[in-house]
Amino acid sequence: MTEVATQSKKGETKPKNEKPKAVLRDDYEHPMEIYLRIERFPHIWCATCGIGTVLTAFISGLEKSKLDIEKVTVVSGIGCTGRTAGYLRLDSFHTTHGRAIPFATGLALGNPKLKVVVISGDGDLTAIGGNHFIHAARRNLDLTIICVNNFNYAMTGGQAGPTTPMEAIASTAPYGCYEYPFNLPFLAESSGAVFVARWTALHIRRLTNTIAEALLKPGFSFIEVICPCATLYARRNRLGDGLDLMRFYHDNAIIKHGANTREVDIEYQKQIIVGKFVDIDKPTFLQQRDRFLKNKLGNQFIPYKEPVS
Ligand SMILES: Cc1ncc(C[n+]2csc(CCOP(=O)(O)OP(=O)(O)O)c2C)c(N)n1
Ligand code: SF4
Ligand SMILES: [Mg+2]
Questions:
Q1: pLDDT tens across 23-54, in order?
Q2: Conformation bin of residue 158: beta by default, left when phi > 0, alpha when psi is -120 to 50
Q3: Averaged confidence pLDDT in the chain
Q4: Ligand 1, residues 44, 97, 128, 232: which to mutate, most atoms within 8 A of Cβ?
Q5: What is the CATH number of domain 35-300?
Q6: 65 and 82 in contact (C-beta within 8 Å)?
Q7: Cα(240) to centroid(ligand 2), Å
Q8: What is the pTM of this model?
Q9: From the CA of 95, how far away is ligand 2's center (Å)?
Q10: What residue spans define the domains of the chain?
Q11: Residue 177 near ligand 2, beta carbon < 6 Å
């Protein structure tokens, strides 16, 4: 029996917001229950949606990282993916659409001891939230961003967004999308991210390991997860359900660690290049600020709260 941090035993009513206590895992109904607000279940996600798989990978990656969960916080914006923050039994924030990164920035700067994670959708992070995304990467803020890319604005009915591949049908693109989509790993790297990876919802073990690695990486880390939206994207494009998309990922994902992010564009129903593309070291925003001001001001500089080495 493994001793883990958790809070309530099988059959007990779980008080909201109670902090975890150490008890035995075998007393629990589900091995991940300690990380989940089960009282909010059933969750809203459709059958064969991939978001739950990403949540599972996140919890496993968090366990693997051995971070103190009292010092981990998760922020999400609005969307189907945005619900993840609400289901996690961590200090988590379900914020406004497109503003997950600004909330996360405030948390990370206000308490540099926190590990701040953003889990949100492609639309939330790179359409309405696109400006925040590029500037957080540029500053190398100490944030881990997990972007569930299901190629559409799912929650609001499957509209085309900045990641919808050309030719894909969406509610706002009945004849197929004709806009150029973002290549998110390239956007992240060229904006300043120090760690960039992409997996699909099928690559659960690799995704888990990458999440654990990203959580321990100082600076702006970005993981894109290509994910089935069964009900809208798959149905509208007659691609079957989420399991059919998983089969497609199995047959069409090519692992290329270190691939040039310029060359990992996604085209409609073509190969998907996955892997860890970028892993470099660069001072974080707070390290850079403290070093810079110490250099300018000498002993007159008093670092805010904890000095960042
Ligand atoms: C300011 C504002 N604009 C628009 C919306 C409507 N809205 C809610 S979720 C969403 C799209 C979410 O898409 P994405 O981030 O890709 O998440 P998904 O649902 O696909 O997981 C939109 C446009 C909103 N809630 N707030
Ligand atoms: S609408 Fe799409 S993204 Fe949203 S829960 Fe259903 S399958 Fe998942
Ligand atoms: Mg989406």
A1: 445 565 778 989 999 999 999 999 999 999 99
A2: left
A3: 92
A4: 97
A5: 3.40.50.970
A6: no
A7: 14
A8: 0.91
A9: 19
A10: 35-300
A11: no
